[in-house]
Design goal:
This protein is mainly beta and 397 residues long. It has a domain of 261 residues: 7 Propeller (Methylamine Dehydrogenase, Chain H). The chain has 3 helices and 32 strands. The strands form 9 sheets. A 4-stranded antiparallel β-sheet has the order 1-32-31-30, with no helix packed on it. It has a 4-stranded antiparallel β-sheet with strand order 2-3-4-5, with no helix packed on it. A 4-stranded antiparallel β-sheet has the order 7-8-10-11, with no helix packed on it.
């Protein structure tokens, strides 16, 4: 009898330890949450249902964000201070470009304090716009650069600052476009657009356009642009000859799920290797620009989606995996340590009216950026009331 109770006691202690480990939050020293959207005071805040942070960048001390809004509402561009830990400025995009619903493309840097982003229209058949975001110590300025593809939104983009060229994927057709900033010259290519037959096939999997277009683009050291095409293939665009090629290796897949594969996010390592995330099954992979070879590194967690990737100053790759109907996991990766599931982030949020602080959990995180000095990783939530979550990395100093 005693041995039975001893066994039960050991089993309960073991299960308790497992559960504690499973639900342990990621709360590193020095982490904090910047309140940008709780309407609980007279402080500057973003309104509810218009504050999902879907594009993010850091310029000097300033965190620059672009939001997406609910149907028939307009998004914002905002700036928050990393050092002051507060929201500084917001601009309703409707005051610059009307009829837009979201900034989902991510930001591309065209200069030291100049960012480019693309918008998605509120109505089907509307046109997305390229916007220039100028960030300075004295404020924030937005400029409308027009619509590169008439009747289409801008789903993803990348910017080559040396050539001053914007590359993008349009929505819903999936066309590839180039836009020269110096003279506004735009060229549109059909090479990346899925055929009607392919679209019909993908609909059998209950896939919408947002489920199969390349969510991100990346540029290698030679200036070539990479993205994904429906069905799990990766394309490369060479600006020198304005030519496209389909890479031999496909995106990693679980057998039978290749039609669900697409690139969710990209990051470039210090040696020029391209790291990407497959949305369908949540695998991290590398693509060698020199050989064209693609290597599957595996899954950080047992969920789909790898919404964001970024290299920090400690040399590690940080990423956001998972999402609805579950919640986001933060993970890190390097060649020696491999994957480390850091769990669900919970950082303290202190602001006027909540001086005691609130432990804020990041359930749905969509974006990530690293400060220019590599010391901080900034994450943006994709919720009705979204905040910025920031944590420091160990630089070994």
């Amino acid at each position: 009898m005693k041995s039975r109770w001893l066994f039960v006691s050991v089993l309960l202690l073991t299960l308790t330890g497992i559960l504690q480990a499973r639900y342990e939050f990621f709360t590193p020293d020095g982490s904090f949450t910047i309140e940008i959207s709780l309407e609980n005071s007279s402080e500057l805040r973003l309104p509810i249902y218009r504050n999902a942070v879907t594009s993010l960048a850091v310029v000097d001390d300033q965190i620059v964000g672009g939001t997406s809004a609910d149907s028939e509402m307009s998004p914002f561009v905002f700036v928050a201070s990393l050092s002051k830990r507060k929201l500084l400025r917001t601009i309703d995009l409707d005051t610059v470009v009307s009829g837009q619903n979201g900034i989902r493309s991510g930001f591309g840097r065209a200069g030291d304090s100049t960012l480019l982003a693309g918008t998605m229209p509120q109505e089907e058949g509307g046109s997305g716009h390229l916007i220039r975001v100028s960030v300075g110590s004295t404020g924030l300025k937005l400029s409308d650069l027009g619509s590169p593809v008439s009747g289409e939104g801008i789903f993803s983009l990348a910017v080559d600052p040396n050539k001053q060229v914007v590359y993008g994927i349009s929505h819903p057709s999936g066309k590839f476009f180039t836009h020269r900033l110096e003279n506004g010259e735009t060229k549109v290519f059909d090479d990346t657009s899925p055929s009607r037959r392919t679209v019909g096939f993908l609909h059998q999997y209950s896939l919408e356009v947002e489920d199969y277009l390349s969510r991100a683009l990346v540029i290698d050291r030679e200036g070539r642009v990479y993205g994904s095409q429906p069905g799990g293939s990766v394309f490369r665009f060479n600006p020198a000859g304005e030519s496209f090629e389909v890479m031999e290796d496909m995106l990693p897949e679980v057998w039978g799920r290749a039609p669900l594969a697409r690139v969710d996010s990209w990051a470039v390592s210090s040696d020029g290797m391209l790291f990407g995330g497959n949305a369908a099954d949540g695998q991290l992979f590398t693509l060698n620009p020199e050989t064209g070879g693609l290597t599957n590194l595996g899954k950080p967690i047992m969920m789909p989606r790898l919404k964001a990737l970024a290299f920090a100053g400690d040399g590690k790759l940080y990423g956001v995996a998972g999402g609805k109907p579950g919640y986001s996991h933060l993970f890190s990766y390097d060649a020696e340590e491999g994957f480390r599931d850091l769990g669900n982030p919970r950082f303290m949020m202190v602001a006027p009216g909540i001086e005691q602080g609130i432990p804020w959990r990041g359930f749905q995180i969509a974006t990530m950026a690293v400060s220019e000095d590599g010391k901080y990783v900034v994450m943006g939530e994709d919720e009705a009331l979204s905040q910025l979550m920031v944590f420091p990395v160990n630089l070994g100093n």
